[in-house]
User: What shape does this take?
Amino acid sequence: IKIKFKDNFELIEAQFKETFKKLFGGGRAELILTDPDDLLNTGIEINVQPPGKKLQNISLLSGGEKALVAISLLFAMILIRPTPFCILDEIDAALDDANVDRFASYLKELSKDSQFIVVTHRKGTMSVADTLYGVTMQEKGISKLLSLKLETA
Amino acid sequence: IKIKFKDNFELIEAQFKETFKKLFGGGRAELILTDPDDLLNTGIEINVQPPGKKLQNISLLSGGEKALVAISLLFAMILIRPTPFCILDEIDAALDDANVDRFASYLKELSKDSQFIVVTHRKGTMSVADTLYGVTMQEKGISKLLSLKLETA
Amino acid sequence: MFLKRLEIIGFKSFADKVILNFEKGITAIVGPNGSGKSNISDAVRLVLGEQSIKSLRGNKLEDVIFVGTEKRKPLSFAEVTLTLDNSDHMLPLDFTEVVITRKIFRSGESEFYINKTQCRLKDVYELFMDTGIGRDGYSIIGQGKIDEILVSRPEDRRQIFEEAS
Amino acid sequence: MFLKRLEIIGFKSFADKVILNFEKGITAIVGPNGSGKSNISDAVRLVLGEQSIKSLRGNKLEDVIFVGTEKRKPLSFAEVTLTLDNSDHMLPLDFTEVVITRKIFRSGESEFYINKTQCRLKDVYELFMDTGIGRDGYSIIGQGKIDEILVSRPEDRRQIFEEAS
Ligand SMILES: Nc1ncnc2c1ncn2[C@@H]1O[C@H](COP(=O)(O)OP(=O)(O)OP(=O)(O)O)[C@@H](O)[C@H]1O
Ligand SMILES: Nc1ncnc2c1ncn2[C@@H]1O[C@H](COP(=O)(O)OP(=O)(O)OP(=O)(O)O)[C@@H](O)[C@H]1O
Ligand SMILES: [Mg+2]
Ligand SMILES: [Mg+2]
Assistant: This one.
């Protein structure tokens, strides 16, 4: 049976407030229904307050901050309704190195309950992987796979 | 006087074929008018052939390859109609390290005729800068500027 | 339930067969631009029954069959096989291992197999129906999904929330 | 013609005055997410006469005046000053150095100055009219412009080509 939109929304909002705090290292976030009396058509506003800053609509945030908010929302949905496996394609692209590390350690936690396959260019994300595959095109246009060992520095 | 669309298009296409070759290290590119008889409403298709691969519409390319095609187009327009200065905000974000290096050396060439201010997270792009500014938020929410020296390794 | 193995041949840039073995936990896939990383996630979408070629970045089904290179001829079909551990019987089958295969042809036709028995697309959908995997789920977050969440206007965002219900 | 100096105070996260000195060649701006790099390019847009607050990521003009933090009060105005070398007289003025200032207030009002003489927005537009700088040019490529070029459907792309003519 399909969970009602309002119940689902409240579950996600509660979880989102937590994932946001973890990924931003503090601050707070809220999800606002633009029209609570019209649940069929209402929009959803996202307002956040990174640590030390003021509560603002996400439109004024930086590229990397916005990406981290989107990841917080995705992680909230994964926590509410876990899938057996999850493929993430370069969702860490806009994050700086400090944010990548926070993202990677949270991903490590989530991976206890779900299997993750992550495409990434970032060392921080690679460092929490249990298995590493390299894709190369030694022969132009032909993809080849290599199993890689992660060198613990 | 405004250059006619067709003349402008042909100028850009010719330049784009060259910038593409430089940034991709070979291959070829073409711009196709979807409706050459209706210049007022025609769309523009972009087909490219990275070195060794087949000519394809850019929709099938990878995230990084597409970004490099967009940069080729931007550089073509800058070469056709140079502006005294140009501000580029993280246009290298989707490129891998090898492509960032090609992007950065081409940018260095273009900077002989135009002044560039580039926002970047990438070491390859930083390494071709003449001046480096660091923006920090030591006090939360307050931007502060630092002039940085690039350490030649 | 978890992924055990993915085999790809003839799909996009995988002219030669590749095999990925997955463990529990985190598997990272790395490599240069255009090397084939996102093509791997497209292959998983395909074998799970994706019918929208647009979400595989193509226009028609044959766009995702190996189109050839300067040195190699195009191929006439592509095949993707996904092996899943089903010890917890999350998938409604008596098997502890479930193998899904999809073979696609330049004509636009597809063949589906579950544990080597040919079946219809509908059977693959029904197999994954209560798992959150496959269509309308968010078990595959594509390159660009983050931007999609962010550029969405408040009115469009409810769709993202409904995907999770 | 080239940029010599940019001074920002009260604009977005620049509660305290910052001064950037530019040389010819390439100036790189680096720093963590949310530190203020894109805000610098927004400041340049503003002083060149940007009227669309949406392209500054805000809704109304007061959104881009320093809104305060947990420790600091909001400010009531913002000021951006851009100094350009005009030795080649690309700008139609007799000066070899041109200084543009824009001051914005919470009321939504703006004041403009060219070399310390108050003027109108229209005068700033006309000053840059034949240089390719400012509106409809591509002298400022924002974070996200690359995606815009790529997601544009073939029919929408002609607009990008017209910007360059
Ligand atoms: N039918 C096909 N036949 C051969 N090659 C193809 C086919 N379809 C796509 N490709 C190639 O696959 C490449 C794209 O691969 P993919 O998107 O997996 O790259 P990627 O590793 O994810 O790169 P990035 O890091 O830039 O995202 C393109 O170069 C494209 O030309
Ligand atoms: N009116 C304002 N008052 C105070 N701070 C503001 C105001 N408007 C925006 N900001 C802050 O500026 C920050 C965004 O800065 P900016 O976009 O320049 O970051 P960035 O350095 O480009 O980061 P990224 O690398 O993630 O793109 C946000 O944290 C936002 O809260
Ligand atoms: Mg990719
Ligand atoms: Mg930015």
